[in-house]
Amino acid sequence: MSVTAAKGFTASGVAAGIKENGNPDLALVVNNGPRLAAAGVFTSNRVKAAPVLWSEQVLKGGQVSAVVLNSGGANACTGPLGFQDTHQTAEKAAEVLGHSAGEVAIASTGLIGLRLPMDPLMSGLETAAAALSEHGGEKAAIAIKTTDTVHKTAVAQGPDEAWTVGGMAKGAGMLAPGLATMLVVLTTDADVEAPALDAALRDATRTTFDRIDSDGCMSTNDTVLLLASGASGVTPAEDAFAEAVRTVCADLARQLIGDAEGASKDIRIEVVGAATEDDAVEVGRSIARNNLLKCAIHGEDPNWGRVLSAIGTTSAVFDPDQLNVAINDVWVCKNGSVGEDRELVDMRYREVRITADLAAGGESAVIWANDLTADYVHENSAYSS
Question: Three-class SS of residue 296?
Fold first, then answer.
């Protein structure tokens, strides 16, 4: 599993001393080639962390030989000195690995507004380099956790297991992305060039990471990278490769929602009967971000009126008198009014399914969200202390 499932990659995860609690906090993923192709997508937040600004420049070259990831500090909103710290990190990684700093991507996660402790980070990179292993993917996934309760990995294989796509992710809050979500590294031993990687990654993130919405808050650090080593020697069919990348992204995205901060319910929101896909996504996201509905789901209250009110805030095409809503397959709203008996809705289980039928066309989309709980409020009220 994870980023070392594909041939040609090594990884490590160590405790460098960035986190005060002594937990693992520094991960290193290295592409040993022969190909060093890469693609990436990043947060669309206009406030971008220094590692995002650095890695965006690195990805313009289409090659990444290594990725340095740290938890325990986002290095966001830290000014020119924060960018200098990122540059220094890339230079140090290049030094210990014998690579070029211009091919080292950086990703950070944690509290915004604090600079990273550079002495522990520099020595930690030496430790991480020495610990690199083709079996180090799980340790790397553990080292990038912040408020995550579990580490997240996934893998998919091509026909006849001729090539592999693996990946790891971290994220449990601020999951309302534009193109990406929190920190994700995907690897493949397929022999694929950078433009094809970019196309597959963007198509995959559009329908996976970009369609989970935990709390409506977009991070400053969102980063998703896809690296290809070419070590299998196989160039897969474009469609087969794209599907494998999408499968891994979908798996990781679902794990992110399943580990959302304080959540007790995972909410699958399917919008059908939309005039366009964009309409379906807009409506689904509006439903996902309705705090009143999220509270109702937590209380196991099938309050379909809050679904309709969320739909009504969008610019989607629909007739209010033709809207239909089902909760866990019970059509509690029909034609914009009372439908089946709401007492028929069983909401005891973790997953809650909401279907919103706009009766305006043939397009659809699925958005994943979660409920809003007192535990979420507590965790985020005390996050920086």
Answer: helix
SS3 319: coil
Distances (CA, A) of 54 to 104, 201, 209, 283, 372: 9, 19, 22, 34, 34
Minimal CA–CA distance to 229: which of 81, 13, 73, 29? 29
Q: In whole angstroms, give the CA distance from residue 339 to residue 343.
A: 11
- Kindly provide the b/e burial profile for residues 45-56, where b requires at least 16 CB atoms within 10 angstroms of the residue's own CB: beebbbbbebbe
| Residue 351: other Cβ atoms inside 10 A | 12
Give the tokens for residue 368.
């994943």
Evaluate whether 235 touches 200 at the Cβ level (below 8 Å): no
Q: CB of 324 within 8 A of CB of 339? A: yes
Residues of the chain below pLDDT 50 = 385
Closest by Cα among 197, 171, 252, 248 to 40? 197
Residue 215 has what pLDDT?
Answer: 79
Residue with tokens 């690195």: 58
Q: How far apart, in whole angstroms, are the C-alpha atoms of residue 370 and residue 257?
A: 7
- Any idea which residues carry the catalytic annotation? 181
Q: pTM (2 decimals)?
A: 0.93
Q: Taking the C-alpha atoms of 266, 296, 367 and 223 in order, what is their torsion angle to the nearest 10 degrees? A: -70
* Residue 199 CB contacts under 8 Å (≥ 6 apart), including other chains: 242
pLDDT at residue 38 in the model: 98
